Amino acid sequence: MDFTNDYRMLIDGKLEAAGAAFEVRNPANGAVIGRAPQATSADLDRAVAAARRAFPAWAAMPIAERKARLKELGDAVFANAEGLGRLLTAEQGKPAQEAAIEVMGSGYWLQAYIALNPPVTVNEDTDERFSETRHVPLGVVGAIAPWNYPLFVAMNKLPPALLTGNTVVLKPSPFTPLTTLKFGELAAQILPPGVLNIVSGGDELGPWMTSHPGFDKISFTGSTHTGRRVMASAAQTLKRVTLELGGNDAAVVLPDVDVEKVAEQVFWSAFLNNGQVCTAAKRVYVHQDIYDRFRDAFVAYARTVRIGDGAAEGTQLGPINNAPQYRRVLELIRDAKDQGYRIALGGEPHAGPGYFVPVTIIDNPPEHSRIVQEEQFGPVLPLLRYSSLDEVVARVNATEFGLAGSVWGKDADAAEALARRFNSGTVWINERQVLSPFAAFGGMKQSGIGVEGGLEGLLEYTSAQTIMRSRKPVA
Ligand code: NAD
Questions:
Q1: Which of 78, 177, 308, 399 sits at a 20 to 30 Å CA gap from 113?
Q2: Å from CA of 403 to ligand 1 middle
Q3: Is residue 4 part of a domain?
């Protein structure tokens, strides 16, 4: 398979170009790496119609057969991991080893769901009646993905949707459509026509999907700002929604830690994928007794990290993915400077092509500062000094977000007691950003609605249906 050109949509089992196409650029150097089809609303209508036509037979298929297709899809991803990974680095910017992890994780996720089954609950089994509740598919799911983990985020949606018997129309971000379109080429050989459709396009395509009456559910991952729009638009036909949104995750470092080791761990918790991770540590609270030592160790480690083109050997951090995000990160850095906050490292953008921003560490800015209050989604991080647990818990939770967070401390029980006080969907203790297809993941507050992963995530693609059967003679 050629991963370097010929990017086509998947509609009703056929790979299609559109009337128009848009350029996709490599964020490391600005070079055009491909042209993606620009779907029209008529293209979307055809994709939805194909998904609707495919739904009854797919839903009626024994679950074991649907699982067999997911297994095949996973195998196809593994078999094409090199080409998919290289393309992912070219369009997203992430280092090659990170792209490989994303691709292999996507294959693993496709196959892991095979272990899950929607349960059937017997509610009553008496002389009077037999009553049971089962979980039936919703119909056609619209899946909308962001640009930070284009393939992996999509693979959080497809397996539970397809396994439970739904059909899907998937839309990648216009900044990173190419890897997903190539995945569609693999899927075209494995899934019946219409079961999975992939459409690419510009800013108008997402709103067309959320307002389209042919969808029964929208599964959206992206910013909280867009999530609000998705929910408002989906409400017109009462589509189900799963919203995986933004975060402003806090990491809290307790005073008993091994400072050097934990500084390195927390660094990657914040800067993996250049900070463009929904669950990146976006504010790091360090106990006052170790604050200065921790900051110095953190900065010393950060100086060793290599930034460059993700395709180059040894690169640990690539560029920011796109121009709007690049401008936003620079604006937050400029604000920190204008306000006179101390910059412990970085601050000046690199000259030359590519959206490169140096690792930038802001030393104990005020709690009300923009860099503390807003989701930066880039390689700039505030380190903050705290003195008591009650104080830090109040600061951690004083946000509209509630996605995730982490606690770092030698006494794991004390760390867990603190973790339980976070108002967020996931809290890691002494580890960073571990995800599992078998664990529910989702945001509290304005970080989302619903979850992905685990049985809870699977059931979000179903409706509960209760059948009650009388055992009394009919009068
Ligand atoms: P975004 O909200 O700008 O875009 C996400 C997707 O929605 C893209 O495909 C985009 O084309 C589409 N879209 C844009 N406007 C739309 C509209 N009005 N209706 C429907 N779709 C629309 O987000 P982004 O910049 O691509 O991604 C970064 C954000 O995603 C961050 O806030 C990050 O925290 C969040 N995120 C969350 C998770 C999670 O699991 N909670 C995971 C990854 C990223």
A1: 177
A2: 14
A3: no
